[in-house]
Structures are given as structure tokens and as C-alpha cells.
Amino acid sequence: MGIEDYFVEKPELCSLCKGMCCKSYPGMYLDPYRFEKIYGFKRDFVELLHENFLTFKICLGVPIPIPKFTDSGCVFLREHGCSLGREKRPCECLILIPEEETLVEGEILCKHNPAVSYIECFKRWKEYYIARSVYLEFGDI
Fold this sequence. Notes:
Elements: H1 11-15, H2 20-24, H3 32-39, H4 45-51, E1 54-59, E2 62-67, E3 69-70, E4 73-74, E5 77-78, E6 81-82, H5 91-94, E7 96-97, H6 100-105, E8 111-112, H7 118-132
Antiparallel strand pairs: 1-2, 3-4, 5-6, 7-8
């Protein structure tokens, strides 16, 4: 199964909280090949990130692309939700299972699909960087 098989199909429930998770944490692009399909490929990975308002988070020593984060949250969060179309959103955003209790409690109680292994995703990114001979110079981000 691919990660897209785990994407949640409840955007209407997700949008009711006005982006609580988006205001506290930008989602990661967990699948390198989906990321490449969306943004293309450049050996200078940092330049590719800059051009698309992205940065990275180091997870188990592996840089994982994420949207840039501002004082108001994810750079793609707007008044009516994410400005990215569903086809461009980070995988982590799309595997989040919305919980109605989040709306009642006022805190994020949504959960990620337990079938998705973050460690496997990080390994896939590491293999991707090696296979593509991606240039990784992170001093500017």
C-alpha cells in the first residue's frame, strides 16, 4: 500500500476547527516520490525548498520537507483553510484523522493513522536522497 491509501476523506470536519493543527505545526511531506511528483526534482534541494516556501525538519537525522512556519502558523494557512489544493498538501496533513472532540475540547485531539510508519517514511527519504544524489546544504534554512 502507498501512503495515499491512508489519506482521510473528511475535509469538512477538519476545516471546522479553523486550522488548530496548522497553527501549531506544519505537516511533513512523508513520501519523497509524491513530493517529487508535486515539486519536481533539483539536485540543490535547499533551493527547491526556498522556491516553494518550504523548509525541513530533521527526523532521526533525515531532513523531511515541511511548509515554512510563521507566527500565525503554516505559511499556507488562510482564513478559509489551506491554500494548497489537496493534491499538493503534505502527506501528514492528509493522514490526520479528524476528531469531533477537538471542536468540543478546544485542543487538538486528532490522531495520525497508526498504519503509517514514520520510521519507514524517514528511511524512504534517506534512500531517496542517496539514490538521487541530492545536494544537501542546510546552512541557509
